[in-house]
């Protein structure tokens, strides 16, 4: 299974290491650095087969989490474990960085000790681990320095629902669901949609007392082309009835992630029309943005990014809405439009550019960024939420947001 874990900074220096099956040699890190020397981080494979064994790595927050695997194992299991390590550190410390790991070295080491037993994942649920290892609050640090320890044994890991602490009590019982959808789209130079995919997540924030058993149902539960469920969800019940039945963890957690192919790409929320003309060592451009389908909601944080050719030196433009900037170092034109509704005038920007040499193209594509609150482009809607085995009626809140993922318009 997993033998060792090394956390490396951007220069390849080891920040922390943990060995579960005997002390491993640091030479594996040297070999990994030699194999990946000079490679952009996004080109480094997550799985590396070497004469010294198999390596599995992820890169997050400018840190490399590298594991050595001593036996045949499912690669996705190791990758999932590494991502859970990073997610747990974020849960404890709000962010992950070299300085945070060094400042909280003991806590990080304790977490790694509890998360795995002799190379096999053991406890990875934040609620269970927080019952064993207290988050580094000021009070907890004072208690630790004074030698004060908890007077009870952790009971989360002894339960058949290790993701939830026992004895949870709230004065006001409430639960919230955020449906967050990102739209990945490629539009060709003729305005036709080449690909269009929605990647969504349902994030819940539970503040419920006791051990509630919830059933969440959707108006249109069969729109998902692919999905992933939190371990608390009863998978077989979802397969058979298309409802989410679960005992929720306490606090915030990702209940579900899903993918939906947008089968009618004409329902894109915005339409971007670029017109580029090239002449000699320069040219001109006109870009317009129209609001198409947003269910009557305003499009917010609307921005257009135009990565231009490296030989372009100067850009002069005039937008009718918003402001623009041109970075001469990166050759990127950014037009910040802001908040736009369908009834507003169409945002447009016109301009000219000059280059140091003759141009064949001003750029290959334009990117759009936007956000639409209280709108799920997939059409996903919550039908009902039922609570069992508890006598209270909690406050329930649902909100949706649609964001641009990689929204690309080719020129």
Task: Name the features.
AP_mu_sigma_su, nine-stranded mixed β-sheet, single chain, Clathrin_mu_CS, alpha+beta, 7 helices, 23 strands, Immunoglobulin-like
Overview of the structural elements:
It is built from seven helices and 23 strands. By secondary structure, the chain is of the alpha+beta class. The strands form five sheets. The protein has a nine-stranded mixed beta sheet with strand order 11-13-9-8-23-21-16-19-18, with no helix packed on it. It has a five-stranded antiparallel beta sheet with strand order 2-1-5-4-3, with helices on both faces. β1 and β2 form a beta hairpin. The longest helix is centred in the N-terminal third of the chain and has 19 residues, at 75-93. The chain is globular, with a radius of gyration of 26 Å. The model is unreliable at 148-152 (pLDDT under 50).
Concise structural overview:
Pfam families: Adap_comp_sub, Clat_adaptor_s. The protein is of the alpha+beta class and 411 residues long.
Give the proportion of residues in helices: 10-25%
Order of helices and strands, N to C?
EEHEEEHHHEEHHEEEEHEEEEEEEEEEEE
For this structure, what is the CATH class of the largest domain? Alpha Beta
Decide which structural class fits the backbone.
alpha+beta
Tell me the strand percentage band. 35-45%
Number of domains: 3
Name the quaternary structure.
single chain
Query: What is CATH's topology name of the largest domain?
Result: Beta-Lactamase
Note the overall shape: globular
- Contiguous low-pLDDT stretches (5 residues minimum) are 148-152
Distance between the termini: 49 Å
Mean pLDDT, rounded to whole units? Answer: 90
Question: Order of strands across the biggest sheet?
Answer: 11-13-9-8-23-21-16-19-18
Largest sheet: 9 strands, mixed
């Amino acid at each position: 299974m997993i033998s060792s874990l090394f956390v490396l900074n951007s220069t390849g220096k080891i920040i922390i290491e943990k060995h579960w099956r005997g002390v491993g040699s640091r030479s594996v890190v040297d070999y990994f650095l030699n194999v990946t020397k000079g490679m952009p981080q996004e080109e480094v494979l997550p799985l590396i087969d070497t004469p010294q064994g198999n390596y599995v790595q992820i890169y997050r927050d400018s840190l490399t989490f590298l594991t050595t695997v001593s036996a045949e194992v499912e690669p996705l299991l190791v990758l999932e474990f590494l991502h859970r390590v990073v997610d747990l550190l974020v849960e404890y410390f709000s962010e992950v960085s070299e300085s945070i790991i060094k400042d909280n070295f003991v806590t990080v080491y304790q977490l790694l000790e509890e998360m795995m037993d002799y190379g096999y994942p053991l406890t990875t649920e934040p609620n269970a681990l927080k019952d064993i290892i207290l988050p580094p609050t000021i009070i907890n640090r004072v208690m630790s320095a004074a030698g004060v320890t908890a007077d009870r044994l952790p009971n989360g890991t002894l339960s058949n629902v290790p993701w939830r602490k026992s004895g949870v009590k709230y004065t006001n019982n409430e639960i919230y669901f955020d449906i967050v959808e990102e739209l990945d789209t490629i539009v060709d130079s003729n305005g036709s949609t080449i690909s269009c995919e929605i990647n969504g997540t349902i994030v819940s924030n539970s503040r419920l007392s006791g051990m509630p058993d919830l059933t969440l149902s959707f108006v249109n539960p069969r729109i998902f082309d692919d999905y992933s469920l939190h371990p608390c969800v009863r998978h077989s019940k979802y397969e058979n009835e298309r409802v989410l039945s679960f005992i929720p963890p306490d606090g915030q957690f990702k209940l579900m992630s899903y993918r939906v192919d947008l089968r009618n790409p004409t329902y894109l929320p915005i339409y971007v029309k670029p017109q580029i003309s090239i002449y000699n060592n320069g040219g001109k451009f006109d870009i317009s943005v129209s609001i198409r389908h947003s269910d009557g909601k305003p499009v917010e944080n609307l921005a257009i990014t135009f990565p231009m050719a490296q030989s372009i030196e100067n850009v002069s433009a005039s937008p009718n809405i918003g402001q623009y900037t041109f970075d001469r170092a990166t050759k990127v034109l950014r037009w910040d439009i802001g908040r736009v509704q369908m009834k507003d005038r169409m945002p447009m920007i016109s301009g000219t550019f000059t280059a140091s040499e003759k141009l064949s193209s001003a750029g290959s594509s334009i990117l759009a960024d936007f956000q639409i609150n209280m709108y799920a482009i997939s059409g996903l809607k919550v039908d009902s939420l039922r609570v069992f085995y508890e006598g209270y009626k909690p406050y329930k809140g649902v909100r949706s947001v649609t964001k641009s993922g990689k929204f690309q318009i080719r020129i």
